[in-house]
Amino acid sequence: MKRHVIVAAGVATASLLALATPAQAGPLRSCSAWFVDGLDGAAVGATGGGSEQPSSRTHLDNVNLRVTDTRADGHHVAVRLVTRRSDGTDHYWAWHSVYSGANTSDSWDTSATDSGGIRLVWQEVGVFEGDSKLGSCYTQAYSGA
User: What is the radius of gyration, based on Cα positions, of the chain?
Assistant: First the structure.
């Protein structure tokens, strides 16, 4: 009888430790944004993506976004965080842009909180002419589970 009590206590302790362990950081994910260039046809104008660490059902810590301009084409590039809320709607966060030209990049470290919940996380990378998005890509979604 005592043996069963000890085993049950050990299982309960292991379960509590698993719940108390900090969430793992999400993997670094990236994609390449294509757009149609009038001279060269389809071209990759930007690469980028990011990672994050879910810390609760409504908050992300250590959000890192990054983007690189891959072409000397006069367009600027940008990256943004996208999250899916508990009700299934998507939250498109602010764009972070690079205007400095070909083969330049930048990264941003931030956090994100959404009272509507955060079920999935991904990044969108885009190529722009002014406010017009010419092409974009999405990284693979991460659930943090």
Answer: 20
Tell me the per-residue pLDDT of 16-57, one tens digit each, with 9 for 90 and over: 333 333 456 779 999 999 998 777 788 999 999 999 999 999
- 67 neighbors 124 (Cβ within 8 angstroms): no
The count of residues in the chain is 145
pLDDT of residue 113: 98
> 26: closest CA among 57, 61, 58?
61
Contacts of 73 (CB under 8 A, 6+ apart): 37, 43, 45, 102
d(CA 56, CA 38): 46
State the Cα–Cα distance between residues 33 and 125, nearest whole angstrom: 6
| pTM for this model (two decimals) | 0.81
3-state secondary structure of 128: strand
Q: Which token pair is 131?
A: 């406010």
Q: Quick one: which of 89, 59, 94, 91 has its CA closest to 79? A: 94
DSSP code of residue 76? E
